[in-house]
Design a protein that fits this description.
alpha/beta; 363 residues; two-stranded antiparallel sheet; Nucleotidyltransferase, domain 5; elongated
Length: 363
């Protein structure tokens, strides 16, 4: 780009120098040379030869020379409208350079990042809403037009445009939402056993866990009947698109007053809470024990589920317990045990985990 610009400037200077030399010649000499050049151009047009496309240097030179002479009668290679268009284009480029050099400075990078984060986190907000939020809450005055310039591009508007994100929907209805999933475990005799688990999304509590070697739609529908009695405030049930969840199973769930939410194809993150639960069961239980049979696996999971609900703190709950005891002690800011109490450890799964509680000492 720099080389082209230098060549353009040199060409313009050469043309201006030639114009200065022409000014020193006699009038008769200039008239003869003008006629000579016009004759050549006339021959050029008579043969209908396609002219070579003018480069930027030629355009700038012609525009500059048109300011000194009556150019309309001299112009041959292009139409007058073309030369005027060149002049306007050059003026636009000049004004763009001048505006960039003397215009308003861009807003700081941290503010641009904040606008992008606000637009991404709030899908229903437009530039005016973000500008108002910045002005009223943060005291930053930015015009909506400037905000729109730094907002990330959004998908083409459609029937679902502007709707809330799936994660937002799940969090808003977590207390009334159940999530379920199947996963497999292998016994000591290399027998594949299927584990069905259902959790309450809001409290992270495991409401049901069962084991079978031969899962079927009828068996799955029976598990849902054991969970939902009609007295709980459940409204939604999330499950994937496994063939085990047939139309009959979904009809059974719908008859209980629940709305079935099937996750998209190959989108396990849509059922992220239950997928994370399955990973926790593997990492904290099944990866350290070898079930001898289906009955043994059921016993292991029953003990671990009780520990998960009542004795395992969850960071997403504050931290807290999914099913806390009624006599839970208040949190103290001190670093000392309450007087008259001692710590008692209870082994879980033969010492794989420990539960710690306070117990009053005998007087």
């Amino acid at each position: 780009m720099l080389r082209v610009a230098v060549r353009t400037v040199l060409t313009v200077l050469i043309d201006v120098g030639r114009l200065g030399l022409l000014a020193l010649r006699s009038r008769a000499h200039l008239a003869a040379e003008n006629l000579f050049l016009r004759k050549q151009l006339a021959l050029y047009l008579e043969r209908q030869v396609k002219p070579r496309r003018a480069d930027d240097a030629t355009r700038i030179a012609l525009v500059a020379l048109s300011l000194l002479v009556p150019w309309r009668s001299l112009l041959t290679i292009v139409t007058p409208d073309t030369l005027i268009r060149w002049h306007r284009k050059g003026f636009r480029l000049f004004w763009k350079w001048k505006s960039k050099a003397l215009g308003r400075r861009p807003i700081p990078a941290d503010l641009r990042q904040l606008i992008a984060e606000m637009a991404t986190a709030n899908r229903t907000w437009g530039e005016e809403r973000i500008a108002a939020e910045l002005l009223v809450k943060l005291g930053i005055r930015v015009s909506p037009r400037t905000v729109r310039r730094y907002m990330p591009s959004r998908p083409t508007p459609g029937p679902t445009s502007g709707s809330q994100a799936w994660s937002t929907f799940v969090r808003n209805h977590a207390r009334s939402m159940l999530a379920c999933d199947f996963f497999v475990a292998v016994t000591a005799t290399f027998r594949v056993v299927y584990v069905f688990v259902v959790m309450e999304v809001g409290t992270r509590r495991i409401v049901h866990c069962n084991v079978t070697a031969h899962p079927s739609a009828e068996w799955t529908a029976l598990q849902f009947r054991m969970i939902v009695s009609g007295h709980q405030p459940y409204r939604y049930m999330i499950h994937d698109r496994d063939s085990i969840y047939s139309e009959g199973v979904d009809r059974t769930v719908a008859a209980m007053g629940l709305t079935v939410l099937r996750t998209p194809v190959r989108a396990p993150q849509a059922n992220a809470f239950c997928e994370r639960l399955v990973g926790t069961i593997r990492r904290e239980c099944l990866d350290f024990v070898i079930p001898l049979s289906e009955q043994h696996l059921r016993q292991l999971l029953r003990e671990w589920v009780a520990h998960y609900n009542r004795g395992r703190p969850h960071s997403s709950l504050g931290p807290g317990l999914p099913d806390p005891p009624s006599d839970r002690l208040a949190v103290s800011n001190g670093h000392h045990l309450p007087e008259g109490h001692r710590v008692v450890a209870t082994p879980i799964l033969a010492g794989l985990h420990q539960e710690y509680d306070l117990e009053g000492q005998a007087a």
